[in-house]
From TrEMBL, chain A:
It holds the Pfam family DrrA1-3_C. The lineage of its organism: Bacteria, Pseudomonadati, Bacteroidota, Flavobacteriia, Flavobacteriales. Keywords: ATP-binding, Nodulation, Nucleotide-binding, Transport. PANTHER family: ABC TRANSPORTER ATP-BINDING PROTEIN, ABC TRANSPORTER ATP-BINDING PROTEIN NATA. Belongs to the ABC transporter superfamily. GO terms for molecular function: ATP binding. It comes from Flavivirga amylovorans. This is ATP-binding cassette domain-containing protein.
TrEMBL record, chain B:
PANTHER family: ABC TRANSPORTER PERMEASE, ABC TRANSPORTER PERMEASE PROTEIN NATB. Residues 19-412 form the ABC-2 type transporter transmembrane domain. It comes from the Bacteria. InterPro entries: ABC2_TM. Keywords: Membrane, Transmembrane, Transmembrane helix. This is ABC transporter permease. It comes from Flavivirga amylovorans. The lineage of its organism: Bacteria, Pseudomonadati, Bacteroidota, Flavobacteriia, Flavobacteriales. Its main location: membrane.
Length: 308, 437
């Protein structure tokens, strides 16, 4: 079994509103899976189905080959977007309670909490109440509680919101380390740069339907536009630009250079090879910049959502 | 995985450790006892005052009947006009002046008897004067008609109807009082319990919503488990508080009555009347004996078992609704519109219990309402001391438990949807829709 989670044609209606329409996703074991989509697309509903909070109307969910059932609660760690802690309860008591709800024994939970609290340098918070802590501090505790029972599947919904850049980095490193140790991560966020940085696979949900899924690298290949960003030093920029425009699909480019170069985006047709373009350009002037334009997740997101 | 004990434990401990809960537990009996003590003390102060009443009897018929007592001194005025008498009683600081005019015929007396005073006189004073005058004047009239009063007194018969049920149990008037006392206490206790701890459950649900912890919890436990854990945990905290109140309150009551020297237990008037009623009928022993039989005549076993069953089912019925309301709203101010329909049957039950059950415990109204599930726990608990056939109790309990299972199911539906809804105040229509989710 190479897939940890298989969601098969899951549908969910709330009254007349269709929250999920036959959505299927496959999350490979050991991957970081980005679950993307505009607000209200149905991501949270899908995550709640995986957590058995919401029962789907149709469709099946398999975790590690088994149909989802209450035993799997201990195999999943979930950090919801709408999250909080009991305000008037002490940090330690609260963490112990939540860990026990996930099936850990009290003693085991205590040992592991000690380890994590030391690791994140929050050991002296044990007897503080949540209302005495800042938002970022409370978020750290929530992160610990989510991963404490060493679940196979970790689901993070906007995990970095509320963290300063230093702590966000710390949490990012912890997520990567957990993946190294064998956990699979589903990661839902609107921050495309984190998706770019972390995710191996992504799925895009829009208006209750899944409209895109696959390895991030494959998707990028599919979306490649055969366009090269070119910087070239020449004595007569206008003549060269006219000449290139007559041969290729040309648009203005914007990047930083040292000299006053001609900057262009050049889109090649199916028959043109980048090497041909390069050798043609070398005859025209001195090349300072030649880069293939790779579509960003951001571009892919916007383009796919607009086209649907 | 069964997390119910864990949830109950947390709910119980957070409730019991809560500062305001502790303060309430200790302060409430103190405040209650202090209030009772103050009221008792003040009314005693009032009673201790000795009143002087001037009497001007121009008829010459009644002045002999006014004998000084502990609390009232009579000042008899003679041979003066009404105006003089008024000014004299004013000067001497009398509470008032009773004026009996010359009486031609005893028939038209009431027109000729007046009480003058600075302030409106107390009702008890007036009625005691009235009864004194009535007795005397009636006797005088009887004499004038040529009737021998001694003969009448000798022919008077005192009746005290002995009561016995068909099964042969002896009962007395005190029985009814004891039964009423038990019934009202049980019904009222349930009513208070539902309101206080139902609200506490509701607030605890709202707290989980506003602190946004609910989704974390709900990914580990079933909403139904969480809801039941909350209800049971809070109820246990409630029982703890009640028991502390009883013990602490009882102790305080004893201490206070010893220290101040007021018998708080006796300061309530119905009891005093009962005492008088009993003592008149044959001394204190009689009172005590009939009180004992009254207690023995109560269907105690039935009462205790029925109390436990009806109390638990009635309480769970309402508290699950409170939990559902808590789940449906975002903050306490939005709860009003949903609380009203819950409070209505509850208040109705208490009123029906107090008014119709006293009147006729087995009448149509009280019987019908002791079967309707939302009023039955309170009304039935009030009826049972008067002896309700077992089949009626069982049918009522069955209906109640059936409804209770339905409301818990219904509440759980609303709960599981409501706890994940933020930011809008739902209408009843939406609540109905949630059930289908």
């Amino acid at each position: 079994m190479n897939n940890l989670l298989e969601v098969n044609e899951v549908s969910k209606n709330f009254g007349d509103f269709k929250a999920l329409n036959k959505v299927s996703i496959i999350v490979p074991k050991g991957s970081i899976f980005g679950l993307l989509g505009p607000n209200g697309a149905g991501k949270t509903t899908l995550i709640r189905v995986i957590n058995q909070i919401t029962i789907p109307d149709h469709g099946k969910v398999r975790l590690d080959g088994e149909l989802l059932n209450p035993i799997h609660i201990k195999d999943i760690g979930y950090l919801p977007e709408e999250r909080g802690l009991y305000k008037s309860m002490k940090v330690g008591e609260q963490a112990l309670y939540l860990a026990q709800l996930k099936g850990l024994s009290k003693a085991e939970a205590k040992t592991r909490l000690k380890y994590w609290f030391d690791r994140l340098e929050i050991g002296d918070w044990w007897n503080k109440k949540i209302q005495e802590l800042s938002k970022g501090m409370a978020q750290k505790i929530q992160f610990v509680v989510t991963v404490l029972h060493q679940p196979k599947l970790l689901i993070f919904d906007e995990p970095f919101s509320g963290f300063d850049p230093i702590n966000a980095n710390l949490i990012k490193d912890e997520i990567l380390r957990l993946r190294e140790e064998g956990a699979t991560v589903i990661f839902s966020t609107h921050r495309m740069e984190s998706v770019e940085e972390l995710c191996d696979d992504i799925a895009l949900i829009h208006k209750s339907n899944k409209i895109l899924e696959g390895k991030l690298i494959d998707i990028k290949r599919d979306y490649k536009i055969n366009t090269y960003e070119v910087g070239i030093r020449t004595n007569n920029k206008e003549i060269l630009e006219q000449e290139l425009a007559s041969k290729f699909d040309v648009s203005e480019a914007n990047f930083k250079t040292l000299e006053d170069e001609l900057k262009l985006n050049i889109k090649l047709s199916e028959t043109n090879r980048p090497n041909d373009l390069l050798s043609y350009l070398t005859s025209k002037g001195e090349i300072s910049h030649f880069v293939e334009l790779i579509p960003s997740v951001n571009d892919i997101f916007i383009q796919t959502v607009k086209n649907n | 995985m069964n997390h119910l004990p864990l949830i109950i434990k947390r709910e119980y401990l957070t409730k019991v450790k809560n500062k305001s809960f502790i303060v309430m537990t200790i302060l409430s009996p103190i405040i209650m006892i202090a209030l009772v003590a103050i009221v008792a003390y003040l009314s005693q102060l009032n009673n201790d005052k000795v009143r002087t009443i001037s009497v001007l009897d121009e008829s010459g018929l009644v002045q002999d009947i006014f004998k000084n007592s502990e609390k009232t001194t009579y000042h008899i005025l003679e041979n003066m006009s009404l105006e003089d008498a008024k000014s004299i009683s004013k000067e001497t600081g009398s509470y008032g002046l009773l004026h009996v005019d010359k009486l031609d015929a005893v028939e038209s007396t009431s027109k000729h008897i007046k009480f003058y005073s600075e302030e409106t006189p107390s009702l008890t004073l007036i009625s005691s004067l009235e009864s004194k005058l009535e007795k005397t004047l009636t006797n005088i009239k009887l004499q004038r008609q040529g009737i021998d009063i001694d003969l009448i007194n000798a022919s008077k018969i005192r009746i005290d109807i002995a009561q016995e049920s068909f099964e042969g149990e002896k009962t007395s008037k005190l029985d009814s009082f004891a039964r009423l006392g038990f019934g009202i206490a049980a019904g009222y206790l349930l009513f208070m319990f539902i309101i206080i701890y139902g609200n506490m459950i509701m607030r605890s649900v709202i707290e989980e919503k506003t602190s946004r912890i609910i989704e974390v919890i709900i990914s580990s436990v079933k909403p139904m488990q969480l809801m039941l854990g909350k209800i049971i945990g809070t109820s246990l905290a409630g029982i703890t508080q009640f028991v502390i109140w009883m013990i602490f309150g009882g102790l305080l009551m004893t201490v206070v009555s010893l220290v101040i020297g007021i018998n708080l237990f006796d300061s309530t008037t119905p009891q005093q009347e009962l005492m008088q009623l009993a003592t008149e009928e044959g001394g204190f022993n009689f009172y005590f004996e009939s009180f004992k039989t009254a207690l023995q005549n109560l269907p105690l076993m039935n009462l205790i078992i029925a109390f436990i069953l009806f109390f638990i089912s009635g309480y769970l019925l309402y508290s699950s609704l409170y939990a559902a309301i808590g789940a449906a709203v975002d903050n306490e101010t939005d709860t009003q519109q949903f609380l009203l329909p819950i409070m209505m049957p509850l208040i109705l039950a208490v009123y029906i219990g107090i008014f119709t059950v006293i009147e006729d415990p087995h009448g149509t109204v009280s019987t019908v309402f002791s079967f309707i599930p939302f009023t039955s726990p309170v009304v039935m608990l009030m009826r049972i001391p008067f002896g309700v056939p077992l089949w009626q109790q069982l049918v009522s309990l069955l209906i109640l438990v059936g409804t209770f299972i339905f409301t818990v199911w219904f509440a759980a539906k609303i709960y599981r949807v409501g706890i994940l809804m933020y930011g809008k105040k739902p209408s009843y229509k939406e609540l109905i829709k949630w059930i289908k989710y």
